[in-house]
Amino acid sequence: MWLRSRESLTDDGVIYDPVAAAACQGCVLQPECDWHNLDQTQLLYATLTSQCDAIVKQFLAQHPTAWIINVGGGLDTRFYRLDNGRCRWLEVDVDETLLWRERLFHTSERFRMVQGSVKQLDWLDQLAVPAGHPTMLICDQALLECSNREISAFCHHISRHFPQMEACLVLAGDKCHTRMGQKLGCEQYQHGFADPRMAIVNALPWACRVEEKSPLDKPCPRWRLWQRALAAMPRYRLRFTPVVLHIEL
Fold it and tell me: Which of 101, 132, 152, 176 has the greatest number of beta carbons closer than 10 A?
């Protein structure tokens, strides 16, 4: 939330999140939120958020009454940014995060919270999503804290519960831990894939479509230096940062 708040107050920001900005400006912990390479980390995560937003927005344009399931989003405010007044939204997260959400955000008759995580999937049995109804699952941060095996298990469970759905996932490249990856704003993740798209294809060979987007694809002047630096190494474009994957089952 702090990174989205800072980005929203930047003149050339890639995302605008007034809810996050308002919440963070009055937070007593604000002075403790700064860390090394903050500006680049802010740009990286704001870009990933922007790319996920674009996928969800396009999905809602095609399916206005869809169900959106956001897993492990923390204090994410995507519902307030993208709500079309007709969709139904489920936030799946651990108890502590849900308590903070109740304090910071307004509830809605189309918005509810469910206890769960990407590793504890009992919440799937609590969902009341009508069979065959357009559904999208979002997981833009939580999988970065999972191992390769845990990600594969999560994908298998989700696909068995929703034979037809779309998903927007963020996975880390295998070079995120390197010096270049750290300069690009990456943190230490629990996995790394040389080819994130192929990792999903291997986990979900029946997927109809798997598309990938790198933060470096963003037409933003603040990315231009890194885009030029990696232009001579196009095969590494998806390996030095997390990437967004749009999956259709």
Answer: 176
Please name the residues in contact with 144: beta carbons below 8 A apart, sequence gap of 6 or more: 170, 171, 172, 187, 189, 190, 191, 242
Residue 142 CA: distances (Å) to CA of 74, 202, 231, 233, 247: 9, 20, 30, 29, 17
**pLDDT value of position 24:** 60
Domains of the chain: 36-248 (3.40.50.150)
Q: What is the per-residue pLDDT across 218-237, written as a single tens digit (0 to 9) for each?
A: 999 999 999 998 888 888 88
Please give the angle made by the CA atoms of 174, 179 and 183, to the nearest 5 degrees: 100
Q: Residue 71's CB: how many other CB atoms inside 10 A?
A: 25
List of residues 6+ apart from 9 with CB closer than 8 A: 21
| Whole-angstrom distance, CA of residue 205 vs CA of residue 207 | 6
For 43-179, strand residue ranges (E) read 67-71, 88-93, 111-115, 135-139, 166-172
pTM of the model: 0.89
Banded pLDDT at 31 (limits 50, 70, 90) = very low
